[in-house]
Please model this.
Amino acid sequence: MNIYKLSWRNIASKPWPSFLSILLLALGVGMISLLLQVNDRLEAQLNRNIRGIDMVVGAKGSPLQLILSSVYHIDAPTGNIPLAEVDALLKNRLIEQGIPLAYGDNYLGYRIVGTTHEYIKHYAASLAEGRLYGQPFEAAVGASVANKLGLKIGDTFFSAHGLDEEGTLHEDNRYNVTGILAYSGSVIDQLILTPLETVWRSHRHEGEGKNEHEHEDEKSREHEEKIDKAHDHENENDHDFQQEGKEITALLVKFRSPLGIIRLPRMINENTSMQAAVPAYEMGRLLGLMEFGIKTLKAIALTIMLVSGFSVFISMYNALEGRKYEMALMRSLGASRNKLLRLVIQEGLILSLLGFTVGFILSRAGMFIITMLVQKNFRFGLSGFPVLQGEIFLLIVTLAIGFSASIIPAYQVFNINISKSLSDA
Amino acid sequence: MMVVVKDLIFTYNKKTVFNFPDVQLMAKEPLLVLGESGTGKTTFLHLLAGLLRPQSGDIIIGTTHLTSLGNRKMDKFRGTNIGIIFQKPHFISALTLKDNLLLAQYLANVKQNPENIKATLQRLNMLHKINSRISELSQGEQQRAAIARAVLNTPKLILADEPTSSIDDRNCASVVGLLKEQADFAEANLIIVTHDHRLKEAFMNQLLL
Model:
């Protein structure tokens, strides 16, 4: 028998008030911890994919949309840009590397991206099996895609036009899976990669039709499928495209020197038909917008926690009224004031610690559910939930709440009138 | 152990002032304190137990001047040297009988000793209730459990407040018998405060408040 055991027994002997206190604390802690986690994971995920991309060049439109579509692959592209203009830009001495991306199709909702092998190298992804694509219509599949769709080396599939699952099927575009990529923790896990030529070939007719349908072309995803099969059978004789006709969707640029960021975006935006967006800047803006919402939710959660602290206090205060004579009894059995003080404060701390633990578990369960939803809806993973600094701070705050809730009951115990309490009971 | 009470005065307020008679007990000598309600019986007992502080006067138990002890030392002294049986049996309701007795050892800073608990319960014929919750005990059993707790740490002084107030004649004799027996066993002074005149015959040494 000791004070710890006694604290536990006392908490267990009044299960409902204890349960209420723990529940309220857990809700507050769970909410705040969940917000911290979402915020942190989102930022980590956003920053991981930004790394090494100093600038994105694409069609004119919203810079945020350009970044979201070509870096994170979660929004529709702003349109296409002519390869000729891109090539001209790449001659600039300030540019160290430019990775072209071309979109057009998807397979069961997973985007098919035409790009060079540089793209894979950029995300430090490696092959799990097979080989990288070489010929048109060969594909290297991201780890999550392969896992979800059960794709294996040698499998074939048909792409659908556009970026939605519902797009019209290109029945003649048969892709061969030549490689499966290892899990890299970046957007590449959620993509199907193929040579640029694949995209050019399957959308060749769009390039040709450009003169007639210029406006529609700028919104490539809204394009109506206008292939007639006869058109596509000509593909075989069409190996040498005209450079002028080719287009890509975006170019991921790495600068040679910091000078690039000062000169190039402005130069591109003012002098070309293209748009340049800086990921770091756009993401900072986006997170800034989100921060307001997160702050509001945090304030709500903090209020819940304070209410729960009050509940702990009421619960302990009430219990103490009934237990006053128990306290007096323990004094009469030789317990010092300090021992009883410890008993009461300990009960407050145990309650708050339990609340924190339950809340912590709730937040992890919440993260698990959010991750599943996000992956399903955005093809965007939030993996690994480390304990954050904010959560350690949260633990301290929770314990402080439990401590302050027990101060008044503890004070009463300290000044208890033993003789009177024993005679009154 | 020797118990001495001298010039003891306790004041609740200006109107209620208790002037207690002097007492001098030799080691192991029992005392019956008789008094009607309102004569300060319980106050006297709580003063002896160090649960109340007197206005003036002296209480000496053995070689210790109780009135001069600080709070912490008082609690400690009470835990190890004084066993108290309250008018109503008070226990920690969340605990079993055994845990209540373990708690008494723990709070008195005595080594927790289940063997001693069993032996004490055995002497009081309560061993079979060792794992019962207090609420499951009958009133008579609770009374005996309270006696068990009071004598558990072999105190030098056993104080009993109206131990027979709600008991019939037959059980009254047996409770008094138990108390005397346990006091003898612990070699302690037994002081009973009561208004119950049935106890008069059992004690030579009496004090009227």
In short: Helices of chain B lie at 41-48, 71-81, 97-107, 114-123, 139-152, 169-186. Residues 139 and 209 of chain B are 28 Å apart (CA to CA). Chain B has one domain: 3-208. The longest strand of chain B covers residues 3-11.
